[in-house]
Design goal:
Length: about 500
């Protein structure tokens, strides 16, 4: 590697001394001076701390550097990393999309949003002194494009070296830091840059029927004016806002994604309990919690979840969003032993009906993402020449079948998680009548809309001695959408 020192204003607007070098592949890299980083830390009154027990971090560090080597090209001069998303798995991509829309008309309390943890701390933005310990591989836009519908932005009031030296000042940055901002860098991206990515994704025609959630972990030290300006100017018309006029309120759990879209909105903002103490009208944009709980998301502990224990009782899941998340960064391991998900953990959380499963180092093709799919079976829905209707198979996964086939029916007692299986069998079109007839009108012919519902249906099938049963999901008259009997549509994107 060769290079020379120089003093320059970089393309991303930051300014300082750097050593411009090329690696063995001839890729130009920039290395900000240690003076610049130290100067910023001094100005932000953030102490520089060294680890006391290096041995405690050795295993985490080994994992960290192995992961960096696997997905990290050199950072180019413009300050943006280059992380290319893995080649998409068309079945998995399609299954995630279809599953995502099954709950469009369900209350938010029982709806799901595929989530990333510390979404903006990504290798896609890495420089030598910025985002060196990322939670994610992909950019915010890439995450949304791969099916993520809930993102987390850690926002910190921190000294920024963006622009010329006389423009350096404290700003709201996207970083992964502690309460005292340890972990932030003066070269981290400003909040507005991340919000711009979200805005650009929402503007695309194919995303007009998507609802997303943005959670702000608030370390802005009272700078709500900049926070409100960044969000309102870019996402204002698309935000579903608090309406009660109270000092702060929770996201209403009784509304549905479809209700939000019908109001012409697409974005929910979660700010946690800090919203109740905020200024500059932040409480008119962001919610403080869920339902009547005004302290952010109820968050679970993976160690307390098993095949027979979901940590929270069912009535709690029916009223509130529940979040579980993992953390694969080295800095978090300095202070705790955070959860890490395996595929079996994701499958177990889905069976509990967890609303928000927050991945670190999310990939649209890895085993955890595959385990997130509880609905369509591998390779399904298959191409059907005429109308197609969905069966719940013996393994609990969905398949597309000719509607003229004969099977028993899955019926759910209204307002409950109780499923009943009919004694009679017939074609798919007879399902509504036979569910009502055999249950005295108590149960309706519908489809499971989350992993817990699907597991409850499996239990009912086992008790009834049924293997394959019709569910209230179909693709009629050559349409490209799979329609639930409740009316929500899941547009199918896979080429058949």
């Amino acid at each position: 590697m060769s290079g020379e020192a120089r003093y320059a204003r970089w393309d991303d607007g930051s300014f300082g001394c750097e050593s411009a070098k090329t690696n063995k592949k001839g890729v130009l890299m920039r290395i900000p001076s240690l003076f610049s980083v130290g100067f910023a830390a001094f100005l932000s009154s953030t102490p520089l701390v060294l680890a006391d027990t290096v041995s405690d971090l050795s295993n985490q560090a080994a994992d960290f550097f192995a992961e960096q080597a696997a997905d990290s090209p050199a950072a180019p001069l413009d300050g943006e990393g280059v992380v290319v998303a893995a080649k998409p798995n068309l079945w998995l991509q399609n299954a995630l999309q279809l599953q995502r829309h099954l709950d469009d008309r369900e209350p938010l309390a029982t709806s799901s949003f595929l989530m990333t943890h510390n979404s903006a701390n990504a290798a896609a933005y890495r420089t030598v002194f910025s985002y060196i310990d990322p939670n994610q591989k992909l950019s915010l836009g890439q995450q949304l494009g791969a099916g993520i519908r809930s993102i987390e932005l850690d926002v910190h009031q921190f000294f920024s070296m963006r622009g010329w030296p006389w423009q350096w000042k404290k700003r709201i940055l996207l970083c992964h830091g502690q309460n005292n901002h340890l972990g932030c860098s003066p070269y981290d991206r400003v909040l507005s840059a991340g919000i711009d990515e979200v805005k650009d994704w929402l503007k695309k025609e194919e995303n007009r029927q998507e609802v997303i959630v943005i959670y702000f972990e608030d370390h802005v030290d009272g700078n709500y004016a900049e926070l409100v300006d960044a969000v309102a100017a870019r996402l204002g018309d698309s935000i579903y806002r608090p309406t009660s006029g109270a000092n702060c309120e929770g996201i209403p759990m009784q509304v549905s994604k479809q209700d939000i879209l019908a109001a012409g909105k697409q974005v929910l903002l979660m700010g946690g309990s800090e919203v109740c103490r905020s200024s500059h009208g932040w409480n008119t944009w962001a919610f403080a919690g869920v339902g009547d709980r005004l302290n952010g998301y109820p968050t679970g502990d993976l160690a307390q979840v098993s095949d027979t224990n979901c940590q929270f009782d069912r009535s709690f899941y029916d009223r509130y969003w529940v979040r579980f998340y993992e953390d694969r960064t080295v800095i978090s391991s300095l202070f705790a032993k955070p959860d890490r998900f395996g595929a079996e953990d994701v499958e177990r959380l889905q069976k509990c009906g967890v609303n928000l499963i927050g991945f670190d180092r999310f990939s649209p093709t890895d085993a955890r993402t595959r385990a997130y799919v509880w609905s369509w079976d591998e390779g399904q829905p298959a191409a059907i020449s005429d109308a197609a209707c969905a069966l719940s198979q013996v393994n609990g996964r969905f398949s597309a079948n000719a509607c003229s086939e004969v099977a028993r029916y899955a019926c759910r007692v209204s307002g409950t998680h109780e499923w009943r299986i009919t004694e009679s069998a017939g074609t798919w079109q007879e399902g509504k009548f036979l569910c009502a007839h055999e249950t005295g009108g108590e149960a309706v012919f519908v489809t499971p809309t989350n992993g817990y519902d699907n597991q409850s249906l499996q239990n009912a099938k086992a008790q009834a001695g049924a293997e394959n049963v019709w569910i209230g999901l179909s693709q009629q008259d050559g349409a490209q959408a799979w329609q639930t009997n409740a009316g929500s549509a899941a547009s199918e994107s896979m080429t058949q």
